[in-house]
Every structure is written in structure tokens, then in C-alpha cells.
Amino acid sequence: MIDTDEPTVVDEEMLQQAVEEQGPKGQAGVIAKQETIELKDVLHLRLDYRHILKIDHLWQFTSLTKLQLDNNIIEKITGLEFLTNLVWLDLSFNHIEAIEGLEALVKLEDLSLSNNSISTMENMDTLVNLHVLSICNNKLTQLDNVIYLRKFKNLRALNLAGNPVSTEECYKEFIAVYLPDLAYLDFRLLNEQTREEAMAKYQYALEELIHNETQELRVIEAKNQKEEELQQHREAFVDLLNGSQLFEGMYADDTEAERLAYLPGVPMLVDAYQNQMVALCVQLFELGLVQKRARDEEVKCFFDCFHEAVEDNQQVASEIIVDFEKARREMLLEMQRMMDREELLARIGQGSKETCDLHDELMTLELQLADQLEDVVKDFERNISDMVASFIEAAQGIFAQCRDLENIHNEKLLEISMATLEKVAKNELEEESQDELRALLVDKDTVMSAIGASHDTHLLKIDNREDELVTRINSWVASLMKTIHHDEVARNRKRIAEIHNYIDNVKEKLDDLNPS
Q1: Which pTM was predicted?
Q2: Tens digit of pLDDT for each residue in 82-91?
Q3: Is the Cβ–Cβ distance between 377 and 485 less than 8 Å?
Q4: Which residues of 110-137 are buried (b: 16+ CB within 10 A; e: fewer)?
């Protein structure tokens, strides 16, 4: 405990001191201190009564399951985002005014926020595993705020005593009916009589709430499904190509197209152009999904093959080590009974040779596996690159058709424009159209300039979407192969280190038996 009236911040020195104080005692504690306790391995940590103002420096405690921060002067919940394995958290007796900063604590089951200054229950949506919530002696005034807790289906115990809301006449009945899965309220069992009385009193309000929740849930599910589908489309690199999105994007920033739309016959021409463009986009979209499924299957097949090869190799190595360990234990027992020094030295020498042979055998196995995996990776890289190249070629062919459609549309637009200019020259244009077209049909150059600008805008949008597709899928392949190569190098190095460590340990045990 830190004896000070000055506000403190959680720092590395405080954490190291706390870990040592709460670590093993006696000889085990001495050994732990000598070997330095790894913060990432600490499971429980007490930081209570330390006058802490700000939570910080907890990023290394990734395995922490229980954290005690009660009886401090914390004003804001921060610095907990790395504690994803936390199950129990005590922040009671602080100066906290708002529930926040808990988003990453998805495994949290028991949360205490008692004796703070919290006025609203909020920002706990991700705490889906919450079983116990203690938030007594705060500033909760609205009974309706309890409805927020309906989303926590695992919540079994709730403590709200000492809040203004707990003095409401219908307090217990309201909670009993709106939190039907709650077993304990303020440390008391909610009995069936209370639930029945509450249901009779709030039945219609509850039915309306359930109806509204159902409607909201449907909206959320539809939104999530749409987002999941869009994510699938992104991973296929054909997002927003399953309809008129590309075509609409081509016209979104095209101010000239708005003016050209006043030309006789152009609206019908644009409609026909849109239908043809959408058909091509949908063709590309469907091709993208088919190709994604094929790539996913290829990736799955690769990793299945990869992991099977590693597991088979590890099985062979494990059997070799098991046999070696059996023989080694017998050898050690035999050596411990030897009285003759020369005989013992000879046996140690034999053991050293057997150990070296084991090292060579294990290293040979690993070398064979590395060579095998290298071939597997090369085959996969070739296959996936061919699949991507084939998709890119097909996609570029469809984008070329899109450009052809744009060129044809542009030619027809020119024809309509020239014909309209002739009518203007002959004063044959319908009277009601003259006002809209006057600014555009000043002369031939003005019309040609407007059509050319519109054409360039459309082609640029098509080119940009094509470039985006090619860039993204090539980046995906490059990133995937980089990860595979990196992971294999890391696996190989780790395995070699394991072999060396094991062999060194065996040799060390042999050296300990050397009488010299």
C-alpha cells in the first residue's frame, strides 16, 4: 500500500511492486523474484487503497482475470483495453461519474461500480457475459434506466441499493418484471410472488416493450446481414457492383450530363445505357463471388495440407522422443548404480553420442518438413496467383465492355446533338424546349465541349473502379503470401530452438553425472 495523500498514477514501478507483494511467499517467492515474474502471466492484481487518480501501464497484463481498483480516487475509466481476459473487476469507492472504457472486456462476468457518482447505465453493450453488477450508492434516479440491462441475458444478480431509484415505491416490482432472468436484487432472492404481482401490474407495458424490442432487433439483424453481405462483396473485390452503383457514380459528379439531358431523346438513351451497364456490372459481380469461393477453397485446402504435414511430422518426432526418453530413464538409473568410474565415463560418452544422434534425427525431420512445406507453399502461390490473374483478366474484359458502351453512348449523344443543332439553325426546335437548350446550344464547340467533358468523367470513373479492383486483389495476394512466409519462418525457428533447448537439457543432465 502506498502511504500518500497525493494523487498517483499507475506506473511500472507501482505494478512491479504490487506483483511482488502479491506473488508467491517464502522460498517460492525468492525464486520468483530472482527469475523475474512475467507481467503477461499474472492472473490476479490488487491495486486498492493507493490513491490512484489515473489507470495506466496495464497493457502487459494480457492474461489478467481479476483486477481490484477499489478505494482510490479514479475519475475516469481508462487504460483497460488490453485486459481482454478480465472476468472480475472492482472499481468501487472511486469518483467515477460515467460508465465508459469497458468495451474490450467481453469476458467480464462480475463488475462492481458501487460508491461512485454514476447517474446513467450505459456503454456496457459488449459485456454480454455479465453475471453480477454491483452499482449501489451512486446517483441513478431514473427507474427506466434499468431497462438498459435487459440486453444482458446472463445477468443474475444486481445491486442498486443506495441509489435514489431504489426508494421508488414500485422499485422491486419494476425490476422483477423487466429483468425476468434476474435471481437476486440487492442481495435478496426475487421470489415468485413478487414476479407475479409485478407481471399483473406491468403486463401491457411489458408487451409493448417486447414488441418494440422485436422490431428493433429485426432492424438490427437486417442491418447486420446487409453489412455481412457487403463484407463478403468487399472480400470478393466486387463491392457495389451488384446494381447501378457504378453507373450512378459516373453521373454523380457530371454537371454536363444534367445539361445534356435536355436534348431530345437523351433521357431514353441514358436509360438504355444504364440497363446495359448494370447488366455488365452484375456479370462482374457474380463472377467475383464465384472466384472468391474458389479462392477460399484453395486457401482452405492449402492450410489443411500445411497443418496436416506439420502434425504428421510432430507425431513422428514425438514418438522418437518418447522412445528416447524411455531409454534415457533406464540409462540414468543404470548410471546411478555404477560404481566404476571408467565404466560410468564410457556410459556418459555413449549417452552423449545417442543425444547427438537424436539431435541429428530431429533436425533432419525438421529439414524434411521445411522442404516439404516450401514445395507446398510454392504450389499454393502458383495456384492462387493463376486464379487471381484469371479473375483480373476476366474483370478487365468486362471493364473494356463498359468502356465500349460508354463510347457507343457518346457517339449516339453526338448524333443527337448535331441533329438538334441543325434544327436550331433551321428554327425547327419546339418552342417549349428552347429556353432549356439555349445555354447549351450556343454553337457546335460548346456542345462538343460539354459532351467531351461528360465522356471523360464517365471513362475516368470506369478506369478508377478497374484500378481499384486490380490493386486490392493484388495487395491481398501479396499480404497473404507475406504472412504465410513469415509464419513458416517463425515456425521453423521456434522448432529448431525447441530441439536445441531439449538437447541442451539432456546434455546438462548427463554432465551432472560426470564424476570429474
Answers
A1: 0.67
A2: 999 999 999 9
A3: yes
A4: bbbbbbbebbebeebeebebbbbbbbbb
Give residues with Cβ within 8 angstroms of 75, minimum separation 6: 53, 94, 95, 96, 97
Structural domains of the chain sorted by starting position, each given as residue range(s) with its CATH number in brackets: 8-221 (3.80.10.10), 245-512 (no CATH)
Q: Whose grid coordinates read 467533358?
A: 453
Q: By CB neighbour count within 10 A (0-12 exposed, 13-18 middle, 19+ buried), where does 236 fall?
A: buried
Over range 162-171, report the average pLDDT.
Answer: 90
Alpha carbon of residue 334 to chain centroid: 56
Report angle CA 212, 218, 223 to the nearest 5 degrees.
130
pLDDT digits (tens, 9 = 90+) for 415-441: 988 888 777 667 766 655 555 566 666
- How far is residue 318's CA from residue 141's CA, in Å, rounded to a whole number? 64
Q: What angle do CA 228, 230, 232 make, to 5 degrees?
A: 70
Report residue 348: phi and psi, to 5°.
-65, -45
CB 324 within 8 A of CB 468: no
Neighbours of 294 (CB within 10 A): 14
**pLDDT tier at 511 (50, 70, 90 boundaries)?**
confident
Burial of 354 (0-12, 13-18, 19+ CB in 10 A): middle
Which cell is 401 given?
465492355
The whole-angstrom separation of Cα 116 and Cα 118 is 6
CA–CA separation, 469 and 501 (whole Å): 48
Mean pLDDT, residues 147-169: 92
Q: How far apart are CA 321 and CA 329, in angstroms?
A: 12
| Beta bridge partners of residue 185, listed in sequence order | 158, 188
